Amino acid sequence: MSQRAIEAAQHLADSAAIARHYAQMGRVYLWLGNFEKAIDYLAASESALPVDTRNEDLAFPKRLRAQIASAEGRYEEAEDLLTDILDVSPITVDDNGRAATLLELGQVAEGRNRPQVAWQRYEEALRLDQQLETIEGEAVTLSHLGEVALATEDYAAARQFFERGLTLAKRVQRIGAIGRCELGLAKIEIAQGNYDVACTLGRQAEQTYDRLGLDQKIRDAKAIVRAALKAS
């Protein structure tokens, strides 16, 4: 992902490696909320590839384009792009693998208010995570399955997913998944009238998201704490 890696790829005239690294840098800026930089790196990634590029290599900028579209609420476009990518995604544990692509398709389905489709995508991703024995991937997928179950008010299933996900996420220190599970469990507790537990979990989620600097998630956690304190 470093500039040094890009320079090395340029020296070797490896267009696919250059495109991959530009796309990875674009993803970082997108995660930080800098859409302008993300779009710049998308253009650089696409420009690095020749006309006769393999579909496997085209997937690098295409994934970033899908992620930008999803972040901007253009879910149908994102879904079309990710579906194309899925056909060439390798069975690997990295962010370009099939499980990661299925996870992103699940998130897009949630954005389109299609919980059943999201559930199916996440279940497919979870099976691959377990097949590949990737604890990190399994933790993330479980946290998203928990959110779908929570949205449909299936609290028993949501609790199971969040608790399993939290255990695994803590084992590998996947901070985003830890926060998602803590916040999800807090929402379950407040829905079931367990206000003291909800308050504790909400504060834990707030601290977790503070480590990532995710302002909206911090506000969500604080809202749970306020609601729990008011109701108790």
From TrEMBL:
The keyword Magnesium does not apply. InterPro entries: TPR-like_helical_dom_sf, TPR_rpt. It comes from the Bacteria. SMART domains: TPR. Keywords: TPR repeat. TPR repeats lie at residues 19-52. This is Tetratricopeptide repeat protein.
